[in-house]
Amino acid sequence: MSDGFSRRNYLKGAASGVASLALAGCTGSSNDSSGDSGNSIKESWESEQMATVQADPHPDLLEPSENEKSVSTTVSHLTWAGYDGENVQQPFREQFNTETSLDLFTDDPKAINRLSTGEWSQFDIFTPNNAFVVDAYEQDLIRPIDEEAWRPYTFDNYLDLFKPENGYKFSHINEDGEFDPDGQLYALPQRWGWVSMTVNTDVVPESDWTYDAAWSEEYNVGVSDWFFWIIQTIMLREGIDPFKQHSEEELEQVRQSTFNLIDNSVAVYPDIASQNQALKSGEIDVLLMGSNFGQGTLRRGGQMQFKTVVPDEGCIIWVEQDTFTKGEMSPLADNYVAYLQSPDAAYELSWPQGASSVNVVPQESVFERYSTEQQKALRTEDLNYILDNSVFFDRVPDLESFQPIWRKAKSRE
Questions:
Q1: What is the pLDDT of residues 385-406, one digit of tens each?
Q2: Cβ burial, residue 166 (10 Å; 0-12/13-18/19+)
Q3: 0.70 surpassed by pTM
Q4: What pLDDT band is residue 2 in, cutting at 50, 70 and 90?
Q5: How far apart are CA 99 and CA 89, in angstroms?
Q6: Are 53 and 44 in contact (CB under 8 A)?
Q7: E strands in 18-88
Q8: Residue 134: helix, strand or coil by DSSP?
Q9: What does the pLDDT read at residue 26?
Q10: Which of 38, 53, 197, 293 is in the most buried spot, having the most CB atoms within 10 Å?
């Protein structure tokens, strides 16, 4: 294997590993948010295109004033499924007598491309996966955040894992445009989980919970058409560090492994609904890649035999993070993010009603509120083990080099 990485020992040498960071404790179409210009409650920073996001002293942002309850505005949010849960959105709408508009995406690069072509003016809040925050920063799409002012609403409530003083770097960016816990705050962790491989434990024994199972003729294998995730899991299987520049030899290694995977698979599934149906029907026994985000809904429905396992080669930890877009904002955008970051809203986001996806959150006190059923579905007792055998999702600097490989591999179906 290249660069001294072995397939079974990648995690031991990964500089970005999270093994030392154990857990502590435990919709509609978008609207142009610039339509409330001239409103008397708008703060000056909300009207300036790239001004730092301020915050009133805690807990003022969580308690609407009479003026805030009377303002006519809509908070617009570009985000993932789950945030649209009725139990997530309705309390804020009722408390602040306002509307929220959510536009759901399934691909971070495509969402960033939308914003970069001018749609930034349609949204107040953007919630990408952690690795893509730098991409949004590089394209001048998101604002800096006043860390001292926001800390009582955010980091003070988090598990130790997500605090910059403990090494969590993906909320902050330094002057060189790199993630750095000592840099400027740009993003606020909101929801998290892991990516690896989902198996039907009634069919696949624990002894086969390695990525090799997806290349084995012993099982019916499904492949997820989620390019940037599938390529990373293939690299983990091959003992290649995903988060660096890759050599021609490594590209060829990934190419051959990808072709072999597709040749061994039943099908490539385009979305979570088709993946989960294939698992439930018994069409497939193994799904690469799988995640708690995608397959957690099966466990919520009582089908605990479906498990996103921890292969010997490890998992990748993703973190969705709230950011404030540039441009004129709704005067309630800061209140909305403070609300989402509150333990009460975070608990509801873990278990959204009328929406797909169940996931854990950074807020420490939420773990004390989960029922036995929720703990089992969310696998809270397994989280330390998962973290000890994972790396954080980071930037893949040459991700575009792998796109032709994936396109050609899919054509082999």
A1: 999 999 999 999 999 999 999 9
A2: middle
A3: yes
A4: very low
A5: 9
A6: no
A7: 74-79
A8: helix
A9: 56
A10: 197
